[in-house]
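Annex B. Sample input.
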Amino acid sequence: MNRFLVGLLVIISTTLYSNAQQQDPSWSARRAIIDKKCVEGDSLCNVLHKLGTFEGHIRSFFMATTNHKDYPDYYALATGGGLGYYSPIIKNFQVGMSGFIIYNNASSHLGPQPPFSNRYEIGLFDVAHPDNHQDLDRLENLYARYYFSQEKHSYLQFGKFHLKTPLINLQDGRMRPNLQEGLWAEWSNWKKIKLKGGWLWRTSPRSTIQWFTIGESIGIYPNGRSVNGTKATYAGNVKTSGIAIGNIGINPVKGLDVQAWNYYVPQLFNTFLPKVEWKRKQGQIQWLAGVQYVWQQSLYNDTLSIQKQYISKNEQSHTFSTRLSRTDLSQGDEWSINYTRITNKGRFLFPREWGVESFYTFMYRERMEGSGDVHAVMIQNQRPLDTSKKLSLQSQAGIFWMPSVNNSSLNKYAMPSFYQANLRARYKFTGFFQGLQADVLYVYKGNLQKDLEESPVYYHNKVDIHHLSVVVDYYF
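Annex B, continued. Sample output.
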């Protein structure tokens, strides 16, 4: 049991003890003296108590998957809670800290059962220890931040924190999101130009409770196949010192947003991602056209066997993704059509432990990472279902044409061509239950590949499956 859990128990015990002592006049008198000293004057204690922010989060997550024919089905129910404290900004400095505890209330067996392995439900807990049902606690935020100006738009921070970028992001479709450790800065003091960037040296991926160096984190999730078709075993064999990220955002004219991101991972790869979105409003109708491109080049130059290589020497990939959307601003009803093309020059690779790709065709519970020579088309609709906009529905339908499952050089995870339909309903409570929200996701994935061999390698947790997620969150 780590120090965060011990600390949380100490806080709870202290609170219970203080309540029990309320009938003791001498204890109450001593407590009053301490409180008086704290709140009197312009003291640091006063500022921290009066202006600091405490945040709480309780989360319950039920997930179930029904697989093809008589292949194993799975279910899991997880609950957890976390606390966080964020200080006021004192002389341009701020600190933040938080932690979270998870419990496995009930589940089917989630450990490996060759030739089967669980894919979705184990992500609610710890993928490295599937039989651990209780001691699932993690220190999350622990950072110091310095603001460069009184507007507090630009800052430099150091420590452990959440980070959201197109490729390294929260990936928060389970109990807890990804976390990063490093140095990060954002500069937003200019009207039309914004800068972001930093250096990351450790990470705690979603579905884990530990912190890893960047190289150690690659391979915690399934490794798939190497380009020669043998089982990939790169976990524990990736050596890199960290991740350098740079971003520039430009708004040259109204409605036009230009972004350029670069991810440099020494001895591994460099990934460049430019993105352009243009919005135009016509009365109550808003149009959006977007395009993004991802170019990746291998920097690998070691002599390990091909099975131990995350990315091969001289490997590269090119990905294009586009979107056209129409939104009725009076109703909040948005329709979009999206297309992604990964060329046949190589696989798009970006460690799944670090986040989900931000392609316009992204759909919950599936990814294109690890694949090349892909065509994907997805239609999406988002709309409120009541006038107060407390209840909303997101509908997605997509077709994904993949390379042959036998083509290991372009299909790392042996994923057949498939079609997918998602329905997601969300409800936000108000009044006495302000802060409570419910989220229900249903997914169906069907097989598109003719004469697909009857094998769990191609079907199990991939196609011909039904999946349900029910999440209840309470923020306070």
